[in-house]
Amino acid sequence: VGGAFAARFLAEYDARCLLSTVDVYDPSPQLSQVLNHLSSDSSNSVVDLQGPRVSTLVLEGGNISVELGASIIFGGNKLITEQVESDPSLEKAPPGNTGKKTSDPGGFGLYDGNGIWDLIVRDDEPDWKVALQLAWRYNFDLIKMRSAVKDAYASFEKIYKIIDGPSVFASPDELWKAVGLFKTTTLSFEEYLDTIGVSGSKQKASTELSDVEWSWPRAAFAEFLPGWDSIARIFLPGHGSLRRELLEAINENNYNQNNSELDGLAGLVSFIPTQGDIYCVRHGNSQIIASAFSRAKRIHAAKCSSNDDRTGIQGREMDKNDADFRHVKIIVTSVVFNDDRVELWGKNSTGENGASNDADPVMIGYYDTVILAAPLQHAQIEFKAKDSAGVIRPLQLNRLCQHNGKELSCDDSLPSSATRKYTQTVTTIIANATLAHENFGLTEDENVPRSISVTARGKQEEGFSALSRLSDTEGSSGLFKIFSPDRLTETQLSRWFGSNYIVKHEKIWGGPHGGAYPDFGGGGEAVRSLPFLLHGDEDGTGPSLFYINAIEATVSAMEISAIGAKVVAKLAAIRMGILAH
Predict the structure, then answer these.
(1) Residue 379: exposed, middle, or buried by beta-carbon count in 10 A (0-12, 13-18, 19+)?
(2) Which of 353, 373, 483, 423 is nearest to 50 (CA)?
């Protein structure tokens, strides 16, 4: 997402046609194709080169498509939604509707393991009944949470106007401060829930967070009526269970992390889709990536194809026949900075599953600017600098220098958000299966919900974070998708599905060089981010290195990557002189 959208925004910013070449290096299939990963249990190379987290599996000759990673899109995600709506070849569809029959039982359930259900909501129930059921169980806490999310989304919406204007941001932290969301990143989601007065607190909010808005009614009850939660449960049995049930299940599903492990902003963003319309793209969300990249080529060609004699950045002559925007299947192994340009070295991605058969890297191109659109800690790229004598040394990233009045001190250490491994999630697709009612504490007359999310205890008991039935048209029984922190064993699958199931696909988002989501570490210092500019001369001249995924330190989603891409594209365009500032 980051690479394709950065290419698109650079094309939009290049009004004077100064860009000669924009190359997207990626070992994945061509961006015009659906990203269909092969099973990752057959080769470590698949884990090491896991590709984009927005990826689609196609089954039954293209009749069934399954999202392996990012499954839903919130209608309020303006950059992604605008891209979808601008492309007539993309069609919105209800999420998870692959092969769905109108007679299929649906709905969702919150499962606590060992046959215990906290909540079951069926999709054939009227909206008013569902609303009443949720209100009865979660009552005032649900109102507080929805109010907090409404306020957070109002702040989030300010981003679009700001990044369309003249403002630039050196880091994600600056962006969150500009829209009033930075404080939510300074504490865990569990602590944030304390500050808005959601009951069921496991801990007291830090006194250092006094400048974060605190719910005065909650504070009053805590001060003058310490037993309020216990009294409320007499009349409202579900009082105090919102955070342990619904919120934790949503976060385990979306991030494979609990409320204490997420930062406040990630927890809020995780809940936002429950407040509006959600959708997916028919035949695969991965088409959005191809659409954004195609749009970049189309925009730039329309503006610049008639300019036969063009002079590019730093006065270099440009061939009118050059392909301006290219996707190249290359595994980049090193980035080497010289005084006036950057060398990229890599290997051809010609082997199985995007791996390389080349023994040694080769020099693949010279560039003025490099944009990294993958997690730094998992990119497997060496960053180097070559001096005038040809001596190569490691490149200093994030070099921050301050003068205390007497001397200049520099710190080039990386924050922990740039060194911690991403959390692992395994996506398993099961066909020819029927879920065992008895294993989940239900009788044959009780339909198992189409979508099952688990609490932290449920995940510990069962070994999965989410399970959903996608279709009843695959084989003789259903098609299921399971998210789990580890690979599922035959014992687990047999317990849930009996003996006739077929493992259609297994995708590991993890291994030594990958992961599904950042490890947010409970917020605070753990989510302090790198700047968007990792390397470059202070005077704004010379080659530079930008980093889109710096924005993932605090929250991760398709829209977040697109926002990071737009911020970085503007910074790069200004630095290269193609956009005035």
Answers:
(1) middle
(2) 353
Contacts of 469 (CB under 8 A, 6+ apart): 104, 435, 448, 450, 451, 478, 479, 480
pLDDT tens column, 478-511: 899 999 999 999 999 999 999 899 999 998 888 8
Question: Encoding tokens for residue 313?
Answer: 């950045």
Residues 166, 570: Cα–Cα separation, whole Å:
9
- Token pair 């009614």 is found at 217
Residue 345 located in a structural domain = no
> What is the DSSP-derived secondary structure letter of residue 405?
S
Q: Quick check: 379 and 372 in contact, CB under 8 A?
A: yes
Read off the DSSP letter of residue 208. Answer: G
**Would 91 be classed as within a structural domain?**
no
Spatial separation of the C-alpha atoms in residues 563 and 571, rounded to whole Å? 13
What is the rounded average pLDDT for all residues in the chain? 83
Structural domain contains residue 244: yes
Same-domain check for residues 173 and 258: yes
Residue indicated by tokens 């801990």: 203
pLDDT tens-digit profile of 310-360?
A: 444 444 444 444 448 888 888 899 999 998 899 999 988 765 455 556 678
Domain match, 122 and 256 both: no
Task: Report the phi/psi class of residue 81: left, alpha or beta, with left for phi > 0 and alpha for psi in -120 to 50.
Answer: alpha
In a domain, 95, yes or no: no
Same domain, 111 and 231: no
